Each structure stands twice: as structure tokens, then as C-alpha cells.
Amino acid sequence: MAKRKPIPTNESRIPTMADVARIAGVSTSTVSRALAGLPPIPEETRQRIAQAAKEAGYAVNRHARSLRLKRSKVILVLIPNLANPNFPDLLIHIDRAAYDCGYDIMIAHTAIDPGRSDRYVDELLAGSIDGVLLTASYCPPRLLECIAAGRHLPIVRTLSPTPDLTGITAVQIDEVKAAYDVVDHLAKQGYKRIAHLGGPPKEIMAIARRKGWEKALADHGLSASPDLYIQSGFTMIEGQRAADEIRSRSELPDAIFCSNDESAYGLIAALKGHGLRIPQDIAVAGFDDLSFSAVMDPPLTTVRLPRRDMAERSIQKLKALIEDDADNDNTILAHELIIRASSLRS
Questions:
Q1: Phi then psi for 254, rounded to 5 degrees?
Q2: Which of 132, 146, 178, 258 could hold 264 in an S-S bridge, CB 3.0 to 4.6 Å?
């Protein structure tokens, strides 16, 4: 191997791509492509260039690259409710995945002012934002109008299932199957009157989880009668209110599948306040596997979402859409049923 040429020892001098090329023993264009993550660069060469950049103290000028590529290198992440404990963990993974792909993220809290989303759409159309990551079923109407008009826009939805015929690609789990697995577990434990604490009736996620409940009951020959469906929401307060409604009924369910963990928390607290034991009197299961679910009293049976994988795959898919190397197929990731004491018969 040729002897490496030293970098000039002027401390005020900023290392250049040419310095990295000299250390790595490759051309400047190869360094440029490798640091940009572009093919076709062998992995061994890519690693050698990365080490050379570290030795040289070279930092990629992302702003200059963005100007050359006519991209902002910014992804807009639309969050419906930052107070929802589902989102902080997801956002950490999204931010890390975006950084690894050379992008920054901008977070927009749509619940504060839904009309504000139109301003972000304008920024996307003007090129100030490269792509949009949706984390709920809500999509700004102007984006839907652009899609319907046939305009190519880099948009990916994750966490929430995507409605059919919207033209938006998604990274998600099979919500119906996940809900089915929870109710199937409850039925196999011997519970016969399995109620469902449903989410907002027009929310696509809540609709899918109700379908999973109904299908599992049908497969076990159990009833999905109207008195076993309790209309509620996704918050702890709504779970508490549902407990009061359940207590007022002539016949109690022996198990309840909640649309999410938050509502399950409120339900369990209120049922215990009424003197009922979990799971001896009523078993309870949730959906999401939030961090508090493992330390509930009793620990909560639930569905674990692959949040890290969702974030990484979503960012990778969005990057491909932005850079015109896209696979527009929806990606279905595996969920995991986490069985804990709240649903187990003694």
C-alpha cells in the first residue's frame, strides 16, 4: 500500500474531502459518494473512508450537500398528541433513524392547531421540507388533494394503520390480528364473557381492534353481543368512566379487552376502587405495551408494538421516496403478545 500523505499541520486549516481521499487511498469522488451513502461503494472501502474521515477530523457539510442536491434534508413528523405516552419513545427512534440517514426532523403537534398543517404542506410543496411522516390516521386535507391530483409526494404513515385507497405507503402491524391474539388468549384462559372497551368509533385503529375482538369471539363460539361492547376512548379518564358504566350493568363481564393501555390503566384503577379484583373478578388486557404496563398492579397483558423497527423502516422508506428509489408497498411488521398477571387465571 502506498505511504499515506500527511495532512498539512496548519491548526487553523479545515480538513477537506481531498485530505480524506489521501488518507484512504481513493479518489475524491469515491469519498464523496461513500460519505453520501451512495452506491456502488464496497463496504470495506466505505469503512476505510469513514475511518479516514475520523482521522482527518473531517465533518460532512450537510448544508452544502443539501444545496447541491436541491433538498432540505428535513423530514416533517406530524404528531397528533405529544401528551400521549406512545409518542416520546417512537420519536427517539425516528430522530436516531433520520440522523443515521442524513436527515433532520421537524415535529409538528397537529392537535394544537389542525389548520397549521396547511402551512407545513406549503413548505413541503416549496421544497423546504423533503418528506412527511404521519403517525396517526389524520392526514392534512391539502396533502390528500395533492395525492388525488396525481402529484408525487414523499409521505409515509406509521404506528397507525393507513386507510385504503389514499395512495400513502405505510409501515404498520396487522391491527386486526394483534387484537385477535389478545382475545384468543383470554378465551383460552377460559373467560366466556369477554367485553371490549372500544376507542373512538371513527378512528381506523379502534375499528380494526374491534374487528379483531369480534373475529376471535366468533372463532371460539363466544358472543359479541352489544352489551359486551363499551364505547369509550383512548385516555385514562375515559377508562375510569367506562368502569362506572360496567358496574351499572346487570351482568359483569369476566374479562375486558381495552383498545389501548391508557384506557386499561383508568379502567383497572376504577374497578379496584369499586372493590373488584384483577384478574380474579375481571381480567383486563390492553394494547401498546407502554412502559408503565409492566409495573401495574397487576402487570398488564398487552400487545407490544415494534416501535424501533417501525421508526427505522419508516425513515428508510421515506428516504427512498425522497430520493426516487422507492418501494411503495405497505410493510407489515410483527407484533408481540405480552402475557402478564392481569389476564391469568390462578
A1: -100, -5
A2: 258
- Please give the residue that has the higher pLDDT: either 311 or 109: 311
Question: Mean pLDDT across the stretch 89-103?
Answer: 93
Distances (CA, A) of 327 to 110, 156, 317: 27, 11, 7
* Spatial separation of the C-alpha atoms in residues 343 and 194, rounded to whole Å: 11
Mean pLDDT (the chain, rounded): 87
**How would residue 165 be classed by pLDDT, with cut points 50, 70 and 90?**
low
- Cell 484512504 belongs to residue: 24
Q: What percent of the chain has pLDDT over 90?
A: 53
pLDDT (0 to 100) of residue 183: 98
pTM of the model: 0.78
C-alpha span between 344 and 339 (Å, rounded) = 8
- Which tens digits make up the pLDDT trace of 284-301? 999 999 999 999 999 999
298: preceding bond cis by omega (within 30 degrees): yes
Domains of the chain listed by start with CATH number: 17-60 (1.10.260.40), 70-174+307-335 (3.40.50.2300), 175-304+338-343 (3.40.50.2300)
Task: Reply yes or no on whether the pLDDT at 40 is more than 60.
Answer: yes
